[in-house]
Amino acid sequence: xxxxxxxxxxxxxxxxxxxxxxxxxxxxxxxxxxxxxxxxxxxxxxxxxxxxxxxxxxxxxxxxxxxxxxxxxxxxxxxxxxxxxxxxxxxxxxxxxxxxxxxxxxxxxxxxxxxxxxxxxxxxxxxxxxxxxxxxxxxxxxxxxxxxxxxxxxxxxxxxxxxxxxxxxxxxxxxxxxxxxxxxxxxxxxxxxxxxxxxxxxxxxxxxxxxxxxxxxxxxxxxxxxxxxxxxxxxxxxxxxxxxxxxxxxxxxxxxxxxxxxxxxxxxxxxxxxxxxxxxxxxxxxxxxxxxxxx
Length: 295
Hints:
The protein has helices spanning about 25-45, 45-60, 75-85, 95-110, 145-155, 185-195, 210-215, 235-250, 255-265, and strands spanning about 5, 65-70, 90-95, 115-120, 130-140, 160-175, 205, 215-225, 285-295. It is α/β, with parallel strands linked by helices.
């Protein structure tokens, strides 16, 4: 078992508390972040169905109270509400903007009567939820300042027999073919290598097994999921563009000039090499999930 650290998907980083670069974001950043979260849900819906199905198999059907910790724009929240039709689902996030979008999406999906939002920074304290059947933390736990404390709070908020589901990125997402027809082959691999070599790599997380045990949980199961859709999704190009646009500023000082020029061509919607014009993009990556039970 690997108790080292892993590199998670950098452009998804945010702290609402879905995963974070920090606690404060400007409107432009939040708009871009909301876009990539929505596209993540649109393109990777088969993966999300797999994870929610895995969780539902461990909880059983009688789930009444669910919390989504770091809900973002609500992809996970709505998936949980659909999967557990008798449940009230509470979405917790530090961003009122994200929660507003989530509430609108819940209403549009006819789930507004079962979805409630709580604006709270999990670093500041537990938001007072109790007697939960299921807690869900997707790509968020490693960005909490004191994850051990939060895990203890989640443990205490679950009813006996209640379940915590945690997911993290196992590997950074890939979108590009090795040979783009422009620039040197292998651009995406060099982008990832440049991120890994930075002094403070983003989105490191430990193996959560030990922390879950220290918080009093019994680890039920751990599983790795592929996020590669079974067939290309129509929104894949927009997802890749949003992802790489968020990646570009972090690479400005670490990529060779020709690689930066190639990346800029990909992000230029007027270029014949622009991502939105390509038909050869495919999402590849994996995420790891933990199921842990309060006894």
